[in-house]
Design brief:
- By secondary structure, the protein is an alpha/beta fold.
- The chain has a single domain, classed as Alpha-Beta Barrel (TIM Barrel), CATH 3.20.20.
- It has twelve helices and eight strands.
- Helix 3 runs parallel beside helix 4.
- The protein is globular and about 80 Å long.
- The chain starts with 11 loop residues before the first helix and ends with a helix.
- Keywords: Cytoplasm, Exonuclease, Hydrolase, Magnesium, Metal-binding, Nuclease.
Length: about 325
Amino acid sequence: MADSKAKPDSNPEKLADSVCALKIKQIEDEVASSYLLVDIGANLTNSKYSRDLDSVVERAKDAGVKKIMVTGASVQCSKEALRLTRLYPGMLYSSAGIHPHDAKTWTDDCYDIIKELAGNPECVAIGECGLDFNRNFSPQDVQMEVFEKQVQLACEVGKPLFLHERDAHDDMVRILGKFKDRMPPAVLHCFTGTSAQALKYLEMGLYIGLTGFLWKDKSDDGVRSILEKGLIPLDRLLIETDAPFMYPNVRGSKIPAHIKQALSDRSLSFLNRYCTFQRNEPCSLPVIVEMIAAYMKRPVEEVAMATTINAIKLFGFS
């Protein structure tokens, strides 16, 4: 008579493989939990965080994000960003500047106001400033004039530039070239350009900041291709969420299967539980660094550590 009770799989090789796979997954998750990351750009002054900023910051810490630079995009936003650094000392830092969208709001006293804000040790960069000829919310000639003034200010105070550029590469290069002999270090934030543009910025000594934009990049010569070709040296790479924007939709059909498989359960848990298209959070940064590492075919621990060291060097974080 056959035994009616199901017997466990007694194949020792299958059992060993299962145990091995489980241990590997546990190690991967432990590694993920040990990331030491810096988010060089998060818009935490956005009204979407007004009710639960404490929780947002705490989740970022839990995810392994140790420092966040709160982006200043207008005079008022820059003041608020600095105020937040006092509420979360050692965790939040700020930048001060006027975004190209708001260049039309520039007045004669803006230079001195931004300079005063930049005099605070918690304010570690000038920006977000630059050129955006994609949307043109401010006239292009005004954008260029205001951008040049902020580059001049960065040279004067000796703080790094946090740059924005969309469809304005040539003019960006031209304006920065005027200051090449005295310009402080700079990062091209949320880079979405071509390989030729990336190489030009690298040739000029800039760092390249990458976000969750990776998920929707479908260009043959865009960010994904740049990473796959290894065009960005690790010592010039920085990572950011640009929260609440640039949500990394890792379920997107444009992302190859091997990239999705490289994402750890722990990182995905933060992304899927707390982040949406409507409101991204800094706790999504582990997923972003894992995507970048997978496209680069580099160990994620290596990429994570390199980008953190770069951020410390560039912005002088303690």
